Write the structure tokens for this entry.
Amino acid sequence: MTLQWTAVAFFLYAEIAVSLILCIPFISAYRWRLVFSWRMWNWLSPYWNKCFFTMIMVLIVLFLDAVREVQKYSVSQSTQDAEVNPNLFDHINMKLFRAQRNLYISGFSLFLWFIIRRVVTLLNQVAAILENTAGLQTQIDCAVRAAQQHQEDNLMLKQALLEGEKSMSAKNEQLKLEVERLSGQLKAAEKAVHKTHAEVEAMKRQSKGLAQEYDRLLREHTQLQNLQSVEDKKDQ
């Protein structure tokens, strides 16, 4: 195996190892995002696209070269040449095997190179979605707690209003009873006042009658005195 194909083979083994590591189930996407956010990767990020497309071009060239080699050695010598020179036939089959091996190595390397990039992108997207989901879940929990608190406050307000209404109704009943009691007392006082006025009027009429009777008696007494004085004069 030449140096370039040895390098491609090691690159394929590295891709397989990286793919297996990325597929480990107990490493979450959030942890992979933490790994991808290291300062080292930030420093290499400006060169990442160039490296990616460069490796694609190299692998495509090697893949096309392997395809050409396979096509070249697939056109085997004729059966007569194989019977004449068996070593040449074995050499051609060996070349064909190497070309097919190189084709598989370069093809799988190119395939896994795309797969690794896609897996890394999906892990970042999944981690971002998980972070957004966690943030949304936190907001939802806060909103639910706030709604529960509002419900509890509303229940407390309703209970306070009901208690206030009950106390107000009790106070209103007490006030109604007090008003009725005071109204009764007022009516009784009005009746007493009317009765007193009536008694006063009666006493006034009685006193007036007594005064008139006194005046009459006084006049009669005066007349009697005058008559008596006249008789006394006659007797003398």
